[in-house]
Specification:
This is Segregation and condensation protein B. This protein is an alpha+beta fold. Helix content is 48%, strand content 13%. A hairpin with a 7-residue loop joins strand 4 and strand 5.
Length: 197
């Protein structure tokens, strides 16, 4: 963007700058019209803002400006620390993220224990999980999926960016039980999902 930016590019930049929530390309076009190549404009803006104090990023098919990750500590406000998720909630969130859409019965089958209704409520109140319809089987159970807020909170562009087994092992985040099961030839939740993808 060394040359003078065109009016379409400037309009896209302005629409994203004032947006209260991340915008899909269709929503951006509602604001700026069809006067140019939107993909090229978004790419040019993302390149222009790369390495600056704010970056233009795409998360789950929606575009927004966010503070550069290395500067986030400067803008952090002091506030009460939100309650941490319980282990059950973290496990449930991970199962939904790797297997979505998934029903409560499927979550319970993977975890091996019942899921309390409060666990799913906490995840929905956080905005990370949403009802995604009903499975077309007898009883038509409700199924759950992650949200764009989940992707944004964890800095993911899509579910494909979720860490795999090698990433988790390298970060030292695997539970010793998972490592023991792997040594015995057991499969983890992550490996099963990677085979399905």
């Amino acid at each position: 963007m060394t040359a003078e930016p065109d009016d379409f590019l400037r309009a896209v930049e302005a629409a994203l700058f004032v947006a209260e929530t991340p915008l899909t390309p269709a929503e951006i076009k509602l604001h700026v019209g069809e006067g140019g190549d939107l993909d090229a404009a978004l790419g040019a803006l993302a390149d222009h803002y790369a390495g600056r104090g704010v970056n233009l990023v795409e998360r789950g098919g929606r575009w927004h400006f966010q503070t550069a990750s290395d500067l986030a500590h400067i803008l952090r406000r002091e506030k009460d620390e939100p309650r941490k998720l319980s282990r059950a909630a973290m496990e449930t969130l991970a199962i939904i993220a790797y297997h979505e859409p998934v029903s409560r019965a499927e979550i319970e089958a993977i975890r091996g224990v019942q899921v309390a209704k409060g666990t799913l409520d906490v995840l929905m109140e956080a905005g990370w999980v949403r009802p995604a319809g009903r499975r077309e089987v007898p009883g038509r159970p409700l199924i759950y999926a992650t949200t764009v807020d989940f992707l944004s909170h964890f800095g993911l562009s899509s579910r494909r960016d979720l860490p795999g087994m090698d990433d988790l092992r390298a970060a030292g985040l695997l539970d010793p039980v998972d490592l023991a099961l792997e040594g015995l030839g057991g499969q983890s939740v992550v490996e099963n999902d990677e085979e399905d993808a």
